Amino acid sequence: MAPYEPEQDTSEAGDLRVGRRKAARYVVPIAVAGVAAATIGLVPALATSGDPDLPKISAQELVEKIAASDTQQLSGNVKISTDLGLPSVGGFAGGFAGGGGGDRGEDGGGSAADPKSKLMELASGTHTLRVAADGPDKQKVSVLDDAAEYSLIHNGDELWAYDSASNEAYHAKDAGAAASKGAGKDAAKDLPKDVPATPKDFAEQALKAVDSTTSVKVDGTAQIAGRDAYRLVIKPKQSGSTVGRITVAVDAKTGTPLKFTLTPSSGGAAVVDAGFTKVDFGKPSAATFDFTPPKGAKVTEADEHADRSGDFKGKDQLKGKDQFTADGLDGLNVIGEGWNSIAELKLPGGQGLPTAGSGDVSPDAQKLLDSLGDQVNGKFGSGTVFSTRLINALVTDDGKVYVGAVTKDALVKAAGR
User: Fold this and answer.
1) Residue 75 forms beta bridges with which residues?
2) Distances from the Cα of 81 to the Cα of 29, 125, 215, 264, 269, angstroms
3) Domain boundaries in the chain?
4) What is the maximum span of the chain, computed from C-alpha positions, in angstroms?
5) Where are the alpha helices (DSSP H) in 281-346?
6) I need a surface site. Which of 69, 273, 319, 390 has the fewest CB within 10 A?
7) Which helix (H) or strand (E) holds 264?
8) Torsion-angle region of 18 (φ positive above 0: left; ψ -120 to 50: alpha; else: beta)
9) Which pLDDT band, with edges at 50, 70 and 90, does 290 fall under?
């Protein structure tokens, strides 16, 4: 295997930021799952059969290669595994991950095919996706289950979602126009356009985080889905982050990310691992993006559904201090920088979590709440830390919240600063 250059310090590589901005423009717009969090590595190495011998390349050159990638057409299968380490208490974990709280079925006045809730199921467990793209106006992602399939199809100005298990479909018109303008009807804004589904989606989010607090280097080669690839490794320089490293396998020929793995600083299995098991860069058949609801399927129109639900108004609702204040969350503040950034905000009323002593929750509910978090003390007083393998949150008894991809100790330190 050819030698590789030593680690490249991003504080010396301003051009990396230029590369990231270019990379964002060339991302194949698979309109599905950007996990939340913005924020995640998937199963062990996929289809690996030895490290190919490839020409030497620097981190700068590899980032530029990703930026220059003009992949507009592809099809294949992607395997995504997510292990956030969420607590499992009956159906609680699935609901907390976004898999069980959506508008489902007639009883909820919504649709089992609604992408808002369905695609968030990718936030936990292992899933196999079949993906296809033909430029910015045609994409399809299907989530394959043992006995069912959920598909999201974007074709021109229309978007269809279909859930075979319930035989329900969800339809939005002018979806393409709304997505390209970043505005439009409430129904179109509701669609989860930023939920990552492919390695390139995840890689774009990781590259956005590269700054002077990050180290970037090329660390060997790999073969993914039968294609030769370079491994780009992104690591926080700071201590205190729950992110250990992010590895992106980049196709040596096209510059397209083929696999994304996020390993936590605590070690163990990847938190998120997304990789192609099969990929073809040829033009998909036009019929791939055609859809007609099957006979007898219940069809929910996005406009009608938005009028009934009247709740979530898209990602713009979650941006900025004004939105937090409008929702009853006051004074959003960011502590620290880079990978150690912590969001600080206040709960309504200046109070912490409800307690059995105050009469706000039952004793049984109090026991459940206590089992999900760790009690901590510091200069700030006392509070509860709720932990996953990636994101941790501290809720103090006086109603402040500190959350970030940082360790429990980092949260306690930030709260008592």
Assistant:
1) 132, 280
2) 21, 6, 25, 14, 10
3) 8-309, 319-415
4) 67
5) 302-309, 320-326
6) 319
7) strand 257-264
8) alpha
9) very high
Residue of 277, 283, 302, 303 whose CA lies nearest to 138: 283
* Residues shown for the chain: 417
Q: Is the pLDDT of residue 355 over 80?
A: no
What CATH number labels 8-309? 2.50.20.10
Token pair 């030593």: residue: 6
Q: What is the pLDDT of residues 246-260, one digit of tens each?
A: 999 999 999 999 999
Its pTM stands at 0.73
**CA distance readout (Å), 66 to 20, 62, 116, 139, 159:** 8, 6, 29, 20, 28
Q: What value, to the nearest 5°, has the Cα angle with vertex 71 and ends 69 and 74?
A: 150
Taking the mean position of all CA atoms in its chain, how far away is CA 58? 28
Cβ–Cβ under 8 Å, residues 204 and 27: yes
Query: What pLDDT sits at residue 212?
Result: 87
pLDDT for position 52: 92
CB 320 within 8 A of CB 190: no
Q: Which CATH number fits domain 319-415: 3.60.21, 2.40.160, 3.30.70, 3.30.310?
A: 3.30.310
